[in-house]
Structures are given as C-alpha cells and as structure tokens.
Design goal:
Low-confidence stretches: 248-253
Number of strands: 0
Shape: globular
CATH superfamily: MFS general substrate transporter like domains
CATH class: Mainly Alpha
Helix content: over 70%
Length: 492
C-alpha cells in the first residue's frame, strides 16, 4: 500500500437511524471544529520561530537583516507551493491523517533547527548560516502547507454556506492564538534557558514550541473525522437544508484529476483571480509587520525583548475579536458577502499603520510611554488585518464546489504567500530595511498596498453580490422544479 493509499478518504458508512442523527451531528461538529482550531493554532507554533530568534542571532554575529529576510522567505516560498499542490492532494485525502502527519513532521523540523550548531559569520559573510536556515525553512514551509487545506475541507463538509462566514471567522482566530502563544512560549523558554546557564537562548524559540505542537498533533488525531458521510451522517446540505452553496460535482469523493480541478474550477474563475490579487497585498501587511516587529521594535524603538514579545502577542490576540467581528458583520449585515467588510477593515488597517509609523511622535506629544503607543497601534492593525484574510478564504471556498475547496485554498495561498509574504514582506523588506531607504520606506509600502487592497475589494463588492443573488435564484428554481416533479409523481 502506497502513502497516498494510506491517506485516501474513508469510505461512506451506512446512515445511522434518524433519531440519532441530530445528537451525533452536533457532537461531531463540535469535535472536528475543536480539532481544526487547536490543530491549526499548533501549526503556527512552528512557523514564525525564526522571527523571534533573529534579533539575538544578529547580536551574536550569526546573520544580518538581509540574510534573515532571505532565510525567513524559505517558509512562505515552500508554503505557497505546498498549499497549492497539497491542497489538491488534500481534496483526495483523509483530513484527519493529512493534518496530523503534517503537524508532526513540521514540529520535528523546527526542533532540529533548535539543536543545530551554527558558526558566526566572517567578514560579513553569513552565507553558510543563511543557506542552512533557508533549507530548513523550506522544509518547514512545505510541511506547514498540510495545515490549511484539510481545515478548508472539513469546514466545507461539516458547515453549510449560510453559517460558514461566521464559523470560519472564529476558526481563523486559531493562527492568532498560535502566534500569540508562540511569543509567550518563547519568553518562557528564554527565561528557562537563562536560568540553566544556556548562552544561546534563541534556541528556545524553536525547541519549546515544537514540543507543544507535537502534543496537539496527537489531539488532532483523536478528534478529527473527514466527512459526515464517513461517520454515518447525511451531507451537511441535507442536515441543514441549506442549498445556497456551490454544489459538489457528482461523486463527492471521486478522485478528480488535478488538471480538471485547477482548470475548470479555479483557473477559469475570474472572481478567484480578483480576490487573489487582494490577498497578495493583505498578506504583505500582515507578515511584513508581524515578522519584523521583534527586530524593528528592539532596533528602532528601543523596546526590550519582553516588551517586543508582548507587542507581537497583542498584534496576534487583537486579531481574535477583530476576525470574529468581521465574520459576524458579514453574516449579520451583508448576507454572508465578504467584500463589504474587507473594504471597511482594510481602511482601519491603514489608520493603524499611520499610528505605528508615528508612534514616537505621538508618544512625545502625549507624554505617554512609547511602548504603550506601539501596543495600541499593533492592536489596531492586528484587530483589523486578520478579518479580511479570513473573509478572502471564505470567498474562495464559496466560489468552488466542495471537492475543489483545497485546490481553491491552495491557489489563494500561492499568491498570498509567494508574492505577498516571501517576496514583499521577507526579501524586499529585509533589503529595504538594510539599505539607505531604511524602515521609513517600508511604511510607505504598507500604506500603499493597504489602499490598493481596499480598492480591489471595492471592485469585488458588486461582483460578489451578483454571484450570490444568481446562486440563490438558481437554488429556488431547482427547489420549485423538485416540488413540481414530486407533485406530478404523486398524481400518477
């Protein structure tokens, strides 16, 4: 039996008695949601570790900012490709096995980085360290790509269209929990290493979170289940009586060829291309600010290591209520449409960027400590930027059949992570910050790209509304035809 055969989705079970369905459905929906929530959070315990290690590695002469940018780019480059390719594999795999195995392997890679020996650069040559880190980040990024697609698959199978915006907005806070917890685990790890007399305390950024992530991989394995049908339950559309979402093609679990998945459901979907462009710019702001905040705050703002960790954690934790609010507004005021809230929240991000940029001037004017201005500014940005990221993901899932959900998610990730994260937030920002342009120019980049993202979401506003209205009309017509057929059959 091959590895792909091992990953194959479980067969559908005979449907259980009707009187047991409701209780079992509610129980299983809670379990699988908790599984993808904490499992995806754990994936982020082994994603941004290098960002926390960089300031100390620079101080020890192991690397410089430009090299750090290149090394950190390894994760989004591989992640973008992996999320795209593995998304297609995920559509034809058991989400439980796929997600758990990916988390175990990603954790082991980061654990290995924390144990590797590194040598200081000679005469400004950091190529050896950069090369080693880049390779390991590539591997970690590829394995991290096994996290989002199975989550998208589970959300598409276990939750219907009219509840998916809110459910996904709640689920999407998982990476905020993961990143925020990572910052705290790093702080604890540094203290522990310091108390043990270990000089290279930056290694704690890799070791401590990796061990915790392994524990959550076991949790995922215990609670996740692939589809309702594999548990003897009806499809979510039949259970919820909600037929407004994009339908699955015949043979829900058929192994659709990659070419058909990509060309028919993704490549020819103009709306997906539009929101993918917005995804690039939103991802640049998200990762450009979060990944470089430990270095920027310690180097430019003069904050301590603990203060910069708290600032990072606040950025992430603020995304939790912000994302939930964004999803609630989408469901409550816009009938599940995502573009309107994306416009609103990206404009709020622009305000937060201006505050973050001018934190020093604001602190001087208000006579408040600089770190508190930074905390507020990063909380505003984090609280607003993660909502559009979640809603763009919802849009992608809503525009394709369920058995193409992983491929659509991978397509979005290919753009967001490859261009927005790797090229712009890692490589470009690393070189710009090291050049004569300096950090000020990076803030101009943040502002311009945020406004471009808002403009694209404005264009998508009307297009999304028309698509949703057409889908509802089609569902109503189909339902009416079904009733007429049933009536005619009864008369005969």
């Amino acid at each position: 039996m091959s590895f792909l055969d091992f990953l194959a989705p479980p067969a559908h079970k005979p449907q259980m008695p009707a009187d047991k369905i409701d209780k079992e459905y509610k129980s299983m929906r809670l379990k699988v949601f908790m599984g993808i929530y904490f499992g995806y959070a754990a994936y982020y315990l082994v994603r941004k570790n290098l960002s926390f290690a960089v300031p100390d590695m620079i101080g020890e002469g192991l690397i410089d900012k430009a090299g750090a940018g290149v090394a950190m780019a390894g994760i989004p480059i591989a992640y973008a490709l992996s999320k795209f390719i593995m998304g297609s594999v995920s559509d034809r795999s058991d989400a439980r096995k796929f997600m758990s195995i990916g988390l175990v392997l990603a954790s082991l890679v980061m654990l290995a980085v924390g144990l590797l020996p590194f040598s200081a650069g000679v005469d400004g040559n950091y190529s050896t360290t950069v090369g080693i880190l880049f390779v390991f980040m590539l591997l970690a990024g590829w394995l991290s790509g096994m996290g989002w697609p199975p989550c998208g698959r589970i959300l598409a199978h276990w939750f219907s269209q009219n509840e998916r915006s809110f459910k996904m907005s709640v689920w999407n806070t998982a990476h905020n929990v993961g990143n925020g917890t990572l910052a705290l685990l790093v702080s604890v790890g540094v203290l522990v290493f310091g108390s043990m007399g270990i000089a290279e305390s930056w290694r704690a950024a890799f070791i401590f979170p990796s061990v915790v992530a392994l524990l959550f991989a076991w949790f995922c394995w215990m609670v996740l289940r692939d589809t309702p049908e594999s548990c003897g339950l009806p499809a979510i559309e039949d259970y919820r009586k909600d037929y407004t979402g994009a339908k699955a093609s015949k043979g829900e679990e058929e192994k659709i060829p990659f070419r058909r998945l990509f060309v028919d459901y993704v490549f020819k979907n103009k709306m997906l291309w539009l929101i993918a462009a917005a995804n690039v710019f939103v991802y640049f702001v998200r990762y450009g600010i979060s990944d470089w905040s430990p270095t920027y705050l310690q180097e430019v703002c003069g904050l301590t290591k603990d203060d910069s960790s708290w600032a990072f954690a606040l950025f992430e934790y603020a995304g939790i209520p912000g994302t939930i609010l964004c999803g609630w507004m989408s469901s409550r005021f816009f009938q599940g449409r995502c573009a309107p809230v994306n416009v609103i929240f990206t404009l709020i991000v622009a305000v937060g960027i201006l505050m973050y940029w001018e934190a020093g001037a604001i602190a001087e004017f208000t006579a408040l400590p600089l770190k508190y201005i930074v905390y507020v500014a990063l909380s505003i940005i984090g609280g607003a930027v993660y909502g559009p990221i979640a809603m763009i993901g919802v849009q992608a899932l809503s525009l394709v059949p369920k058995n193409a959900a992983g491929t659509a998610a991978g397509f979005m990730g290919l753009f967001g992570y490859m261009l927005g994260d790797a090229v712009l937030s890692k490589i470009a920002m690393g070189y710009v910050a090291s050049s004569s342009l300096g950090w000020n120019f990076t803030f101009w980049m943040f502002l311009i790209t945020t406004l471009i993202a808002a403009a694209i979401c404005t264009v998508a506003w009307g297009k999304e509304k028309r698509i949703m209205e057409e889908r509802v009309r089609a569902a109503a017509a189909e339902h009416k035809a079904c009733l007429l057929y049933t009536s005619d059959a009864a008369d005969e």
